[in-house]
Amino acid sequence: MNMQQIKNVGFISTRIAGTDGVSLEIEKWAEVLKRNRFDCFYFAGEIDRNEEISFKIEEAHFEHPDVADINKSLFGVTNRTRKISENIQKIQEKLKSALYEFCKKFKIDLIIPENALTIPLNIPLGIAITEFIAETGIPTIAHHHDFYWERDRFQINACQDYLDKSFPPDLPSIRHAVINSPASKQLSHRLGISNTVIPNVYNFAEEPEGLEDFPCELKSKIGMKEDDLFVLQPTRVVPRKWIERSIEIVHSLELPNPTLVISHASGDEGDDYYQRIIDYAENMGVKIFAIDNLIGGNLEKGNKKYSDFSYSCKWILILCVLLGRLEIYTVILILLPIIWRK
Q: What is this structure's pTM?
């Protein structure tokens, strides 16, 4: 891949908007690319970037009615109807044509599919990207966040042929990037695809712009008292985040007003787990405040989005995330004196 010939980079995803992990990583990658004099453009079903550098097509979104209908017909079953296959082909042809138009309009030299060739939330889009790459040989960095084999709901399906073809594809012009070493090992073991690990990171060296007393103001807005302890679960409401553990931690603190604030909604994984969490919290005597409607990457007039926090707040959030992960036991073991004794 000759980087000397590459100037315009196109990010492709189902959604490039809000504060989901994929959208945040796109923003970070774009910042680094622009710093190195690349120009970035965006293709998705929902985009919150400038219209002059964006190409929006509704069928690229996983929440598009036709795409949602396809997903309902493919997962949890073992056979699909001819009509569903025809619908998939129809939508993917439309999306592939849109990709050609996107690359022609912005003179794209390299594309970066963000999770679109990883998790099958929009199978027509994945197939369209795969065929577009195969037909053009365009240099591609496939950035993978969540593989389908990591999610139980995708294990029983009627589309294994599509998954084998496009999630992810193995083509000569594609370089694969994953976010952690377990994913790297699984991709190599399952498909024999070499890849590079690029972890998700934060730039703590850069001071956020427009800092205000957002945390205190936020407590007031959601009905918490000034002296209430603000305990934040900075994740989506999905089973692998083990929110039950956070509820148990808040319960064990024996606070006057035990409250857990959750930053993000369940997203594409449904509301069943969210309802279980609400019931569990009620049994444990813990209040749940969901603030996903107040979290955002941009500040809006008359309706503040609480996305910029001080360094102290960030370190508290890091601690909360760490406490909710199994890696905390590794850290504890490293700090135990007995480990270092001969």
A: 0.74
